[in-house]
């Protein structure tokens, strides 16, 4: 038996067990978080390294299925008023907080509606300084009889009042920021609640030594069951290590000391994958590879604000030049040779195909150099003659993509220069409209196309909003407003698709590729799936 495995046995016996019985290693799931974990307070769960463990410890009113439909969680059902301004949630009566010394006799109590009133107000409180406070910005904080726009009508009825219709609200409620926390525990631990989490989730915190190891144990009082009525979770424990070096992480996985790898690092890509992005056959007897769409669009953004001199003097002020760029490079070849097909060529719109109901409905740019040349000629630059060079600004991790585009556009007469900036300087210049063409990406905060299309609203001009291209179209703005009046997702889709088509037709952005969730699992791990939000759901995992 390897020394590492002996260590795991010893560690779990000492640190994990609530009795003198040894934990069954066949029911221990192990993964590594190279970026570390700094907080287990859902109010600060802003990135995946924090969202993943928080997702095991807490629950919210609703949750997302693998196909990103909103499903019941602590709220067993809900009603939405006809005007879309009132959401009434009916809570389950069998959800309890984890046992903790902050409760009477250290026994976790039942979750009631007032816990959500507390949680939401804590999230909105400026003293909390949560990066997720924006999630509740749509609440009508002046609604009479409410506490900042939410009320507990009884222990089992929680009501939220909005200041305007926002049909993506249920999606917002699935975000970790909105996971329920008990006021007793926050009062007891104060700022240390981040290190002493108390939630309702399928696992509870047993041990955490920062930079070394995090251990979660099975919550035997957890309320969810599988379709056969068996209580979840199946696992006894989750162990998270914090190895920063990606090559060492890979070796731990190959040696059987880690059960799961997310994504592919350059240090191990050529070892794990074939050139076309398939699992290396040498590992097929002990490793499973699962993939799926990820709600992340990589793109070139084009600054369109005609009030800026830098735009007036640019050939990109001509829509046909922007379109010529869109048709001028081969995304399929780019993904094969530069990303081993770990992504999908962006031949559709800005909203990625992993979005529910979207699929491949928007016609985008495909590789068509003849059309690209024709568009250039129509713009007054036959074969690129007379057109000044165009500068694409990027960070060094996308330099290869930009060089590929530079080479292919050069073949049709478009001269591209590349400017590489450090991340902080790049973001500052992009936000302040100093870059005419920039390589950007947008990862969904919640599973609704509105999250992508809001980037093109006139009212969202940067630096005060996320409209970095300064695209402005009154018809687009009207369609957005009309979409928000439709409570039904299916009714909104027609508006969303029309808006997405408008953005691509104007070439405000030129999509490059849609990202892909890639996971590697030990052969003995079952029940893990992928979802377009790249959420880690372990309550149904078996070993």
How many whole angstroms does the radius of gyration measure?
A: 25 Å
CATH superfamily of the domain at 294-517: Dipeptide-binding Protein, Domain 3
Q: What's the level 1 CATH class of the domain at 294-517? A: Alpha Beta
Largest sheet at a glance?
Answer: 7 strands, mixed
Spatial shape: globular
Mean pLDDT: 94
The strand count comes to: 17
What's the helix count? 16
Q: What is the third-level CATH name, the topology of the domain at 294-517?
A: Dipeptide-binding Protein, domain 3
Strand proportion:
15-25%
Distance between the termini: 19 Å
Q: Percent helix among the residues?
A: 25-40%
CATH architecture of the domain at 294-517: Roll
Overall structural class, as computed from helix and strand content, comes to: alpha+beta
Low-confidence runs: 1-20
């Amino acid at each position: 038996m390897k020394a590492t495995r002996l260590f795991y046995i010893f560690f779990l016996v000492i640190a994990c067990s609530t009795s003198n019985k040894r934990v069954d290693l066949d029911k221990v799931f192990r993964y590594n978080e190279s970026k570390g974990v700094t907080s287990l307070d859902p109010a600060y769960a802003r990135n995946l390294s924090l969202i993943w463990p928080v997702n095991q410890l807490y629950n919210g009113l609703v949750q997302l299925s693998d196909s990103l439909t909103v499903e019941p969680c602590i709220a067993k059902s809900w009603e939405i008023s006809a005007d879309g301004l009132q959401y009434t949630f009916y809570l389950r009566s069998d959800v309890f907080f984890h046992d903790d010394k902050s409760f009477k006799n250290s026994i976790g109590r039942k979750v009631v509606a007032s816990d959500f009133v507390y949680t939401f107000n804590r999230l909105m409180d400026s003293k909390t300084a949560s990066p997720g406070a924006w999630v509740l910005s749509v609440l009508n904080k002046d609604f009479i009889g409410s506490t900042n726009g939410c009320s507990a009508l009884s222990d089992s009825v929680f009501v939220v009042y909005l200041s305007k219709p926002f049909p993506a609200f249920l999606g917002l409620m699935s975000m970790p920021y909105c996971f329920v926390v008990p006021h007793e525990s926050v009062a007891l631990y104060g700022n240390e609640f981040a290190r002493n989490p108390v939630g309702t989730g399928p696992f509870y915190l047993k041990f955490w030594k920062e930079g070394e190891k995090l251990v979660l144990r099975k919550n035997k009082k957890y309320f969810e069951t599988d379709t056969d009525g068996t209580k979840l979770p199946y696992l006894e424990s989750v162990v998270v290590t914090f190895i920063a070096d990606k090559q060492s992480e890979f070796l731990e996985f190959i040696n059987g000391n880690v059960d799961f790898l997310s994504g592919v690092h350059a240090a191990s890509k050529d070892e794990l994958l074939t050139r076309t992005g398939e699992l290396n056959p040498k590992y097929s007897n002990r490793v499973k590879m699962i993939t799926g769409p990820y709600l992340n669009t990589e793109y070139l953004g084009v600054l369109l604000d005609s009030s800026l001199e830098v735009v007036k003097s640019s050939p990109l002020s001509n829509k046909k030049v922007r379109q010529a760029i869109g048709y001028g490079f081969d995304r399929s070849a780019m993904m094969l040779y530069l990303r081993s097909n770990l992504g999908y060529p962006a031949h559709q719109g800005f909203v990625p195909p992993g979005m529910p109901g979207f699929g491949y409905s928007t016609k985008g740019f495909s590789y068509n150099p003849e059309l690209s040349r024709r568009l250039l000629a129509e713009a007054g630059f036959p074969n690129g003659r007379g057109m000044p060079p165009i500068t694409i600004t990027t960070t060094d991790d996308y330099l290869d993509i930009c060089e590929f585009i530079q080479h292919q556009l050069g073949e049709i007469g478009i001269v591209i220069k590349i400017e590489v900036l450090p991340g902080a300087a790049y973001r500052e210049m992009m936000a302040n409209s100093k870059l005419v063409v920039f390589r950007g990406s947008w990862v969904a905060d919640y599973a609704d196309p509105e999250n992508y299309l809001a980037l093109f609203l006139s009212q969202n001009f940067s630096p005060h909003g996320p409209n970095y291209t300064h695209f402005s179209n009154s018809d687009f703005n009207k369609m957005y407003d009309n979409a928000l009046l439709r409570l039904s997702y299916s009714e909104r889709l027609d508006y969303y698709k029309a808006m997405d088509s408008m953005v691509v037709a104007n070439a405000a952005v030129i999509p490059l590729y849609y990202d892909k969730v890639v996971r590697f699992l030990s052969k003995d791990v079952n029940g893990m799936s992928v979802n377009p939000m790249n959420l880690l759901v372990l309550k149904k995992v078996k070993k």
